[in-house]
Amino acid sequence: MHQNPESQNALQNGAAVTSFLPHRFSVAPMLDWTDRHCRYFLRQLSRHALLYTEMVTTGAIIHGKGDYLAYSEEEHPVALQLGGSDPQQLAHCARLAEERGYDEVNLNVGCPSDRVQNGRFGACLMGEAQLVADCVKAMRDVVSIPVTVKTRIGIDDQDSYAFLCDFVGTVAEQGGCETFIIHARKAWLSGLSPKENREVPPLDYPRVYQLKRDFPQLTMSINGGIKSLEEAQAHLQHMDGVMVGREAYQNPGIMAAVDRVIFGTTGPDADPAATVRAMYPYIEQELSRGTYLGHITRHMLGLFQGVPGARQWRRHLSENAHKPGAGIQVVEQALAKVVRDR
User: Fold this and answer.
1) For residue 26, how far is the Cα from the chain centroid?
2) Which of 38, 111, 135, 177 is catalytic?
């Protein structure tokens, strides 16, 4: 486990389990968004937030031709989110993740997309609590890093509080899961797109708070619709952790104050312009490996939200980063449009 200073202090003081401290603030796994370039960028804004990979299926890891576990050492603490429902395959992938140095393995029991259901993983697994418990136990049996579960508060018409408690209780008691991230919406497995499932089912924060009260021995983070650090602080009055998704991606500037506001560190907040410059060595290295500039800068477009020149920053990157041969000068030119206006 890669410990930050807070973790080490907590360990010395006999406080919370070290591996759970990063859950105080995490960035959600988001398909097509939280790739390794995105995570490296977000790490420049916060040293301590826990970063999650996109969901990676067991099939991709076991049978795919690419390296689906690639990441940079600078990303720690970083968690791998797995999609799957076969205990042996999940155990195999969890072992690979630990060997590669990941700090946590997370099982996706929340994604409602059709292709996920067809593969028998994601939110549909809420209806199979014993199978989820078996999956978690199989992974826990072969790794020493935390194995966690990200889930919803219900699926379709199975959305009673009793159903949620039964699911969490089974996975905790039969599977040994100690940490749950709860998206405070239920999922409709048919009739709604994945995007609609992130917006249409109403948020029910009080239900998640109650779940934490009823399972005080478990570590629980809340997820869904959180748009500011002030909101995060309010949730932390009830929960062990907060997971932020789209807001951290579309407005990454909010990450600049996470270490101070959420983790209580001293020192200045991350400066957005300095953050861009801190990316230059990484960008140069990736370009030398054949990575397209736009694959990196697409994650940085929202950094200056609300700052004069932000539109010009976005436009310059959007129009130029994808061009053949685009290099670091494109980023420098875009940054000059913001810095000039400050």
Assistant:
1) 6
2) 111
